[in-house]
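re: that chain from earlier
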Amino acid sequence: MVRSTGIAILLLIGADHVAAFPSHFGASAYIGALFLALSVACVALCVGIMRRLAFAWYAGALIQVTAIALFVLSRTTGLPGYRDDDWLDPLAGVPLGAIALATEAGFLAILIAALAAGEIPAADRPGQEAVQLVGRVARRSAVETERPRSAASTRDRR
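^ sequence. v structure.
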């Protein structure tokens, strides 16, 4: 139940930022790019959570805290080349900014509840899973690129 809720929230966050992308890209290209990057990251985190990687939860928390901080900064001090005064950030009457904040905070709340219930392993070293995953992918890639040499290519070298 926790995994499916976390995945659903991440998909909402991604969809919210895809919907808001065009207007934000028009205001500042790098803000729009960050919106797309957040959406792609949310999909990748969903895959990690489906594969039961605790690292995906921790990375998701870091990303959501960063998104909340950037949202608040963009409406208070402003970001380089970008400032917004509208806390609701409506698009066609839908308060995308409020939805983003609520879903990002919701993901953090689900993570905390899941950790308290023991449904997500508390990693001694959260980056350890990521390092192991990258190692497995690298080994798999190396094995797939090593092709047996044909008799003709061996004969040509003699």
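The mean pLDDT is 84.
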